[in-house]
Design goal:
The protein has 357 residues and is α+β, with helices and mostly antiparallel strands. It folds into two domains: 91 residues, Winged helix-like DNA-binding domain superfamily/Winged helix DNA-binding domain (Arc Repressor Mutant, subunit A, Orthogonal Bundle); 217 residues, Alpha-Beta Plaits. The strands form four sheets. It has a seven-stranded mixed beta sheet. It has a three-stranded antiparallel beta sheet with strand order 1-3-2. A hairpin with a 2-residue loop joins strand 12 and strand 13.
Length: 357
């Protein structure tokens, strides 16, 4: 059995973000995959493949295979694509983003989930600290608080949170998996959990499997407003076309922002927005509201004037929207990299950088 799960670790490491081998990961995989699921996972593609093609390729009976794949989809181990008039397609999910999030989306509280949370937390600090979160192309990027972008500045289409919501056909809300994991570990910050957003076919999959609830545009915009009022940062895929999610993140619980606050990698997993706050020293009274709202510790107050660490700042705009004296304004930054065109380009870039490093 150990050899089976060791091979599964190797399979998980083939995904762009990777999964470095570890005893914590081995123990984690033993809990979330049974032996039949682990064996099948070794032979599943990373891209959706028709059920009949999988059965033919593996020489297995279609009905028996579908039963197993459906069980794995319900457990958040594989993705099932369903389109009207077409055969179901399945593919193995990566550990992150994918399997990790789905283990906590239902906000279940039981001994097994607590053990999974402990192992994921240990693996996050051990397995990814020096081996995975060091590539140059960020997996995610920051979407700024839209209302704080001054009118005279050009706003690119993929920078508007509201546009994603208003233009999407299918959307859903789910629980913040990171804050639920933190709750299981006894250290949640208590900020709202029901504000994480998913879009498109993956949202439909999550709703059907009970991991999310379908949401209207009004529900999504309300969640966006509640997230901003709670001081949460909008984090999405580092792509221009067809984003899959918008997480509303805190620096204390979030795995993405934790790359900055816990692992010390400001530029690796979370890509900056195109903006940077500036301070009007004549208006700033050193109240430290911006210090308290900043999720990545990028602001300090010196001699009663706020100071921004531009290397650490992610450009979310929360300090601007929460400043009581209106002493802050958001401006375009120079050291900004445009998001990749799509998920294929993003994955290819990260894989190439992992190979080089």
């Amino acid at each position: 059995m150990d050899d089976l799960y060791a091979k599964l670790m190797e399979r998980m490491d083939k995904f762009p973000l990777g999964a470095p081998p570890s005893d914590n990961l081995l123990n984690l995989l033993r809990i979330i995959f049974d032996e039949d699921e682990a064996e099948l996972a070794l032979h599943l593609s990373s891209n959706p493949e028709r059920l009949s093609d999988i059965a033919t390729r593996l020489g297995r009976e279609k009905g028996e295979l579908e039963t197993l794949l459906e069980r794995m989809a319900d457990k958040g181990l594989v993705y099932c694509r369903e389109r009207a008039g077409e055969e179901k397609c399945y593919n193995l999910l990566p550990l992150l983003p994918g399997i990790f999030e789905m283990q906590f989306m239902k906000a279940e509280v039981n001994p097994t989930k607590k053990k999974v949370a402990e192992l994921f937390d240990a693996y996050y600090h051990e397995g990814w600290r020096d081996k995975t979160f060091t590539f140059k192309t960020p997996l995610t990027r920051i979407l700024p608080v839209e209302e704080e972008i001054v009118p005279k500045q050009e706003v690119l289409p993929y920078e508007r949170v509201s546009a994603y919501i208003k233009d999407s056909v299918y959307m859903a809300l789910t629980n913040c998996f990171c804050r639920h994991e933190a709750e299981l570990l006894g250290r949640s910050c208590g900020r709202p959990k029901d504000v994480c957003m998913v879009f498109g076919p993956f949202a439909e999959f999550l709703v059907k499997r009970g991991y999310a609830r379908k949401a209207s545009k009004e529900m999504m915009l309300d969640a966006l407003d509640r997230a901003e009022k709670a001081g949460l940062v909008h984090v999405t895929d580092n792509v221009q076309d067809k984003i899959g999610f918008i997480c509303n993140c805190c620096g204390c619980c979030c795995g993405f922002l934790g790359a900055i606050t816990k692992l010390g990698y400001p530029k690796s997993v979370v890509g900056n927005s195109r903006y940077l706050p500036t301070i009007d020293e004549d208006l700033c009274n050193g109240c430290e509201t911006c210090v308290e709202i900043c999720q990545v510790g990028a602001i300090s107050v010196q001699e009663e004037i706020a100071q921004i660490d531009q290397e650490r700042c992610i450009g979310c705009g929360l300090c601007v929207s929460h400043c009581p004296s209106k002493a802050m304004e958001i401006r375009t930054r120079e050291d900004w990299s445009e998001p990749k065109a799509n998920h294929l380009d993003l994955g290819a870039a990260i894989l190439s950088e992992r190979d080089v490093g």
